[in-house]
Amino acid sequence: MSGRGGPGGFAERIGAQVEDADDGGARIAFEVGEEHLNPAGTLHGGVLATLVDTAMGQAVRTTTGEGEVPATSQLTVTYLRPGKPGALTVTARLRTRGAHLTVCEADVEQDGEALAHAVATFALLER
């Protein structure tokens, strides 16, 4: 899948847009608005977790066969600095693919600075 579009589900509902997804990688664009902020006025960590999970899921889907469905089984997000209103980008890539588990990484950047780094394991389920 290459090209721009919504990822579907919750991530699309909050405004995530898939810019590219191909060959074990994916890139998501997101515009942080006031509705995405926590009481401290910074980007809510749950929004970031949703974005990295979605980007990594999109990356995994570029390598799955017919009937394989990736399901997040582990997600670790390291928050490096607070996000603010404005554009950000999430870039995800496969690190290792096994018969039943796949490991991915994702990085979030805003204004040329790293906001978060994530690692996830996806189980490959049969439909």
Automatic annotation (TrEMBL):
The keyword Transmembrane helix does not apply. Keywords: Hydrolase. Residues 41-115 form the Thioesterase domain. Pfam families: 4HBT (PF03061). Gene3D superfamilies: Hotdog Thioesterase (3.10.129.10). Coiled coil: none annotated. GO terms for molecular function: fatty acyl-CoA hydrolase activity. Belongs to the thioesterase PaaI family. This is Uncharacterized domain 1-containing protein.
